[in-house]
Amino acid sequence: MTVPGAPARAAAGLALEWRVELRHGVPAAAAVLAVLWSAVLAAVPAGAAPAAAVYLLIIDTAGFGVLFAVVLVLFERTEGGRDVLAVSPQRAAEYVGAKLAVLTALSAAIAVPATLAAARERSPAAAAAALPPVLLGVALLSLLLVGLALAVCGGAGGPGVLFTRLPLVAPLVAAPVAQVSGALDHPLLYAVPTTGGAELIRAGLLPHAAPGPVPLALGALYLAACAAGAAAQACRAVGPRTAAGAPSGGPPAVRAGGAEGASRAAARAPAKARPVRAGAPAARARGGAVGGLARIDLRGLLRDPMLSALLLGPAVLALLLRWGLPPVSGFLADRYGLHTEPVTPVLLAALVVLHVPLMMGAIGALRTVEDADDGTLALFRVSPLGLPRYLAYRLAVAAVAAAAGLAAAVPLSGLAPDVPAEGLPALVAAVGLAALQAALLVLAVTAFAASKVESLVLVKAAGAVFTLLPAAVWWLPSRAVWLLAPVPAFWPVAVLPGYGAAPWPAGLAAGAALSALTGAWLLRRTLRRLERG
Predict the structure, then answer these.
(1) Cβ(394)–Cβ(293) under 8 Å?
(2) Are 92 and 240 in contact (CB under 8 A)?
C-alpha cells in the first residue's frame, strides 16, 4: 500500500478535524459568539468600543479553542479514536497541527466582525486596515494558548485536568491584560510571550497607544517561536503513535490487529467502566437506590480533589470579589474615570447570582453526560433506580448545591452590603430562582448534547448568556427589557434589589412557573434521548 505524502496527509487531517468539530458544534459555537460579541461591541459607545474590543479579543476570543482542544483529545482517547489513528499514516505533528489550525481559524473568524464593529467610526479603509495586526495577534495567541493547553493537559486521563492543570495557562492571559490596561507597566512583562500578541491587537484597534513597528515585530517573532515550542510539546503529549513509529509492544489496539483491534478496544472501554458505578445493590438497605447513588457520589467527591475544589468555588469566587474588586475599581476610577458603584447590582447578578448556578449546573451536566458516555445510564435504566429518579437526583443536587453556594457567596462577595431589610425578601427570591437555573442547565445540556464536547459547547453558550443578560436588563429601555422575559434566567435578575424590573412576589411566581414549564419540556426531551440510548 502506498503511504500518502505529507501534504496529502495534512489536508486529510484538516478535513477530518473540521468534520469532527462540525459534528460536535464547535464552529456553531464560534458563530454564536461572533454574533454575540459583535452585537455587544456595537452597543458600546463608539469611543469606548476599540478599548473594550482589545480586552475581549485577548481574554475570550484568542483562547476560544483552549477548552475545546483538551476536551476533544480526551474524548478521542476515551472513544478509541486515538488507537485508530495509531495505525494510520498520520504523524503526531499532523494530528496536533490540524487541531491548532482549525481552532485558530475559528478564533480569527470571531475576531473579524468584532473588530469591524469596534472600529465602526473609522472609514471602511481604516477599519479594514485594523484587521491584519488584530488577526495576527489573535492567531498567534491562539496557537500558543491552545498548544500549551494540549501540552499541559493532553496527556492526562480524565476531564479533571480542566480544573486542575488548565488554570496554569491563566497567567499568560493576565500578564498582557495588565500591560494593556496600564495596571502594570514594566519591561519584564514583555518576557511573557502573550504580551506581544496583545500589543498587536492594540496596534490595530488603538494605534496611538501601541509601541512602534520594531517592538511589535520582535514581540510577534518571540510569540511565534514560543507557539512553535508549545506545539512541539503538544505533539509529545497528545500525538498518536503512527504505525511506523509504534513500538512492538504498542497499544492494545495495535496488538489486537490494527484498526479492527482499535475498534474492539474502544467498544470494550465503556464495559470496563460500567461495573464501577453499578455496585449499589448493597446500598438499597440504607436509603434505597437514591441513597446508594448519593453515597457513590460522596465517595467520588472525597476521592477527587477537583470536585471538592469546585464545590468550594462559590466561596473562593466571593472572596476574590471582596478583596480584588476594590483595588480594580479604584484603578478604573483613577485611570478611566469609570466608577463601579452605580453598577454594583449588575456585578452581583453577573458574577455571583447567575455565575454560581452556572458552575453547579455545569458540574451536574458533565457528570450526567459522562454517565451516558460510559454506559452507566444503561444500567440505571434497568435498575430499581430508573432514569426518572436518577435525573431527579441530579437536578436536586445541582439546585441544592447552587442554593448553598449562593447562600455563602452573596454575603461574602461584599456586593450586597446595602440591601435594606425590606429588600431581603427580593434577594431571597432572586437566589431561589437562580438556584433553579442550575437544574435547568443540567436538563438543557442532557437534552441536546450527545457528547462531552457538545456539552462544553452548550455550557460555553450558557455562560455567555448568563454574563450578558444582567447587563442587557440594566441598560435596555424598560419596555424592551420584557423581550427577555421568556428566558428563565431573566427572572432572578428582574427581582434582584437594584433592578426592580418586577415586584418580587409576581416575579417569583412568574419565574418559578416558567422554570417549571421549561424544565418539564426539557425533561421529556432528555428522557426520550436517554431511553433511545
Answers:
(1) no
(2) yes
